[in-house]
Amino acid sequence: MEEIDRLELRYEVARKAIHVSSLSIPVIYWFISRELALLLLLPLFSGFFLIDLLKNFFTPVSEWYHRTFDSMLRTHELERTKLHLNGATYIVMAAVLLVLFFPKIIAVTAFSLVAVSDTLAAIIGKSFGKHRFGQKSVEGSAAFFVSALVVVGVVPGLNIFVGIIMAIAATLTEGLMVHIGKFKVDDNLSIPLVSAVVGTLLLSIL
After folding, report:
1. How many CB atoms lie under 10 A from the CB of residue 131?
2. 3-state helix, strand, coil in the chain (%, to 5)
3. Rounded CA gap, 149 and 56, in Å?
4. CA–CA distance from 73 to each of 2, 24, 46, 133 (Å)?
5. In this structure, which of 62, 101, 132, 137 has its CB flanked by the most CB atoms within 10 Å?
6. 168: buried, middle or exposed (CB in 10 Å: 19+, 13-18, 0-12)?
7. End-to-end CA, the chain
8. Residue 117 gets which letter from DSSP?
């Protein structure tokens, strides 16, 4: 069943303002070692993950969580009877996996794509999206792709061909959505991981 987009534009903007602030992760990672990045990211992920678990099983945490964040939550994130993770947990999880398994330049690029381009796609799509396909819009996807080209163009030392293909892969992933069986993979995870896999494969053959 297709999920209804319940967020008003102002709450989408607030949600994405938090989202784009995660751009600090690849910026900081550019200047530090993998080991130090993991030392910072793993406790952060553990904290988000713990809150996500407690909100499903511990009533005081659940009440605080929904009282504080309900206005910015998507429909599936409001579900109180089924275990799920929120977008913030997924994006920090993506950062941990990128740092662990991918070259730094690929990890920085892939995470920047989801932080910047996914944000613009959501805001442009909600504001100007008239031509819909599923839960997405042509206008939002176009914003994603154009901004993704800008992102890969400014990452220092990135092979531009690799960057363009990563931008295409990220745009397709954002537009089509990734499913494993009936489970929809959150795009905060699928966009950076798919683009990172594509980028790493290309680097290995060039």
Report:
1. 12
2. 75, 5, 20
3. 39
4. 16, 22, 20, 22
5. 137
6. middle
7. 42
8. I
Which token pair is 199? Answer: 């980028």
Q: Which helix (H) or strand (E) holds 147?
A: helix 138-154
With contact defined as beta carbons under 8 Å apart, do 94 and 114 qualify?
yes
Length of the chain, please? 206
Report how far residue 73's alpha carbon sits from residue 12's, in angstroms, rounded to the nearest whole number.
Answer: 9
- pLDDT of residue 4 exceeding 90, the answer is no
Taking each helix axis as running N to C, give the angle between helix 118-128 and helix 187-205, from 0 to 180 degrees, rounded to the nearest 10: 130
Express each pLDDT in 157-172 by its tens digit: 999 999 999 999 999 9
Provide the whole-model pTM: 0.79
Work out the number of other CB atoms within 10 angstroms of the CB of residue 21: 11
Structure tokens at 27: 């910026």
Helix axes 160-176, 138-154, angle to 10 degrees: 150
**Measured between alpha carbons, how far is 112 from 186 in angstroms, rounded to an integer?**
16
pLDDT exceeds cutoff 70 at 18: no
CA–CA dist 177, 170 (Å, integer): 10
Interaxial angle between packed helices 34-57 and 24-31, expressed in degrees from 0 to 180 and rounded to the nearest 10:
150
